[in-house]
Amino acid sequence: MTTFKEDKTSTGNGVGKLSIAEILEAVVGEDIPVRFSAYDGSSTGAQDAKYGLDLKSPRGTTYLVTAPGDLGMARAYVSGDLEATGVHPGDPYEILRVLGDQLHFSRPSAKELAAITRSLGWELLKPVAPPPQEHLPRWRRFAEGLRHSKTRDAEAIHHHYDVSNAFYEKVLGPSMTYTCAAYESPDQSLEDAQDNKYRLVFEKLNLKPGDRLLDIGCGWGGMVRYAARHGVKAIGATLSAEQAAWAQKAIADEGLSELAEVRHSDYRDITETGFDAVSSIGLTEHIGVHNYPAYFEFIKGKLREGGLLLNHCITRPDNKHNARAGGFIDRYVFPDGELTGSGRIITEIQDVGLEVRHEENLREHYALTLAGWCRNLVDNWDACVAEVGEGTARVWGLYMAGSRLGFERNGIQLHQVLAVKTSPKGDAGVPLRPWWKA
């Protein structure tokens, strides 16, 4: 902890005005694992450290002190008021790893807090407008409708997915797949791993030519097109207008229009039934935990007897924590997103009467996937910034690098759960042992 010194600027209690670097030391101690410098000329931390942080403006200080934690850091970083040195803004993974491993916050004493407040001055403690990339806080979203209503879900999806198809093409690569890939080895290419993921889902669902598939939250139609290439009639639904337009063009360009369709539609508006299989790849995170019973009941109603469900989603490593996302994720990435453990998801699937046959955790695969997306963002940084602006590109680099670290450290997971709609007599109509190549 920094030592407060007496000087001529003392306000009467023996404590003088602190520099920004001294304030940081008061909060995290003097053993800071990165170089830190601030606009007031002060600095601290290991001067020979590979990575650094440069606080460039008073506004950045205001962001940090008025929204402590990941939200304040994100605001300062996205706005460009806080620069990370030694890393590319498209992939700040390494500095996040070092900070996560070695930076430990402590609670300043009342005397220290008073000194920090006087040193900053009241002007820097007044909240200022956040970067334009930030979504409204939860309590101000009621104008968009009740949480997880159709209108509010549509707005949340629009915020994240209707950024720019050209931007996503640069970041996601040719597959245009924004979900966890399935790697056969760590050095497999991102594109091959995404194709392998679709192959895995297709085989788990035991699909055959002539079968019917419903893909809920289909994104740019990757699963729909994969199924159609293998003779399956597939319908996809997405709340993103840009995704639907891109997917329909891709379907036409591949000559798959007789078998495949992607609709700009809420999944709840799909009227067809009797599907042989339903895939839900990366949508459950947007549903809301309290809506799981209705969601899985809806899916059950879409399946024929013997039909299969494959639910693929990000999960927490336990079933105890609050489902809501943290400040940065909720405001910048997935408004209203919620995560829970795989046990809760399996329970809700079982409670609507579907039989769970298999589940597996692919969290290491998602870390590899995110690393691949970050490489794409770095390689295409100038084009991405030209397309969406530097602030939005920074959001994506920060989000993907931080998420990679979360999957590596088992802070979040990715589970696939396979279930079947049995007959009234319990017939499942599936082979005795797993029928797919792992």
TrEMBL record:
UniProt keyword Iron present: no
Keyword Metal-binding on entry: no
Keyword terms: Lipid metabolism, Methyltransferase, S-adenosyl-L-methionine, Transferase
GO terms of biological process kind: lipid biosynthetic process; methylation
A molecular-function term among this protein's GO annotations: methyltransferase activity
Domain Polyketide synthase-like methyltransferase: 167-419
Pfam families: CMAS (PF02353)
Record family assignment: Belongs to the CFA/CMAS family.
Name of the protein described by the UniProt record: Methyltransferase domain-containing protein
Source species of the chain: Rhodococcus spelaei
